[in-house]
Amino acid sequence: MLGTGLSAHAQCGIANTAFKSGESLEYDLYFNWQFIWVKVGSAQMDTKMTKFEGKDAWKSYLITRGNSKLDKYFTMRDTLLSYCNPDLSPMYFRKGAREGSRYYVDEIWYTYPNGNCQLKKHRIDADGEQHWKTSTYRNCIYDMMSIFLRARNFDATKLKKGQVIPTPISDARNLSNSWLEFRGRETFKMNGSKEKFRCLVMSFYEREDGKSHELIRFYITDDQNHIPVRLDMFLSFGSAKAYLNNYKGVRSAMTSKIK
């Protein structure tokens, strides 16, 4: 690929057919307490075309906020920011998170020297201590945001039930052994409404300490937009769900919606 004159990051890119500049997705967050699902917060993800270090880039940010009900048990204030090249290969990632009593920051800068994927990592721990590390990989590496944008552009017509897609994801500390598994197609009725969607269902797994754990299950519209309408999250302190409650600026018609 390098021999054809393509830039190194092109190896890690994918054609974007799923979203356009100005897309905004809003979610309601729910947590399970003693078999009762309680609304505990909201999340919003916005994506637009902008500039990063003078270059054209997709900017996506996700803001997650718990409400007072959740704060009694676990404070959650997360802001994730991602810049990607026009071909969706990652350029920069930042996560600022207040989780419980901890606040920490992760940052990653991506470069692609000699066809490799190089990550310059920076972490600020809850105690204020800073850590810097540079890692170089022969394979493409992603973060929590860039892999999400990439996955929305998978060709669903080529996916087979049970198919596994390696998705190596890094934060400022570790590279995870993680993957997506396509679980098939389902019709999903939105929480608290009559809307129904035809969905692709995918699970995100991570292997740690010799065991595989399903972390998130995605229900994604089976149309060109591939918008997650429901997320089931399996957390260390319980189960949570996110339901899409509003969307605007989508690229294509929501043909997956069943009237």
Automatic annotation (TrEMBL):
<protein>
    <recommendedName>
        <fullName>DUF3108 domain-containing protein</fullName>
    </recommendedName>
</protein>
<dbReference type="InterPro" id="IPR021457">
    <property type="entry name" value="DUF3108"/>
</dbReference>
<dbReference type="Pfam" id="PF11306">
    <property type="entry name" value="DUF3108"/>
</dbReference>
